[in-house]
Here is the input.
Amino acid sequence: MLRIATRGQIFSFDRPVVMGIMNVTPDSFFDGGKYQGLASVLEHCQKMVSDGADIIDIGAFSTRPGSERISVKEEKERMIPALKAIRKEFPNILISIDTFRQSVAAQCIEEGADIINDISGGLFDEEMIPYIGKNHIPYILMHITGTLEGMHHEEIISENVHQKVRQFFENQTNKLLEYGEQQIILDPGIGFNKTIECNFGLLKDVDKYRINSLPVLIGISHKSLIFKTLNITPQEALNGTTVLNTIALLNGADILRVHDVKEAVEAVKLVAMTKK
Here is the structure.
């Protein structure tokens, strides 16, 4: 299970954790542009906290196919005000920052963030791994292949997905461990550079790519493996999201990253009852 040491505190959980997504982007695939003003951001955060979120994950750079590649300056201008407002309003909540840029990560940690959630697993910014390693910052290490521009169409994995994801985790984790003990969370990167069949395979066999008994995060909320399989829209994929989150929990997931916190929290509670 998850244990996070941050800001002089230790957060320990004896159950799977729910991470609520707070996008402050105008163009994310599911909720882009929905939470632009600080009042709207805080209102949504309040709902997620009330619904049982353990972590708020703030993202200011959309990684959906075809999204705009914004500058570091613009990412910070979107991110920092939201972070400051959320930290002030919710001083005890764990805050994760969804960024692959070291300079954004460093400023956010200085402003009170707790976790860095890097979709590139340290590949897109060579300064990220040394920064995280030297400072022992809680770090979500996501698997990806290719480049920033080609993250959805380059080097698509169609076979041996568990082996390839595990090897990536071993390589990147070893780089971090050169700096001493770390706080690493593994994310197999469902929806990034993998066929739909491989994405489902990663949900089915979590322990095939888990290394060092590290916690595993699953992020499938409203993603294409759901809406393409069911021939629906992302907005219609809540039921499918809940079904797959439940499967992920049954198969050993430690964190669910979701847009819909209430439904995920209910899944956690119900699955827990089947394991008593």
Observations:
- The two ends are 16 Å apart (CA to CA).
- The first helix runs from residue 38 to 51.
- The chain has nine helices and ten strands.
- Residues 29-33 have pLDDT under 50 and may be disordered.
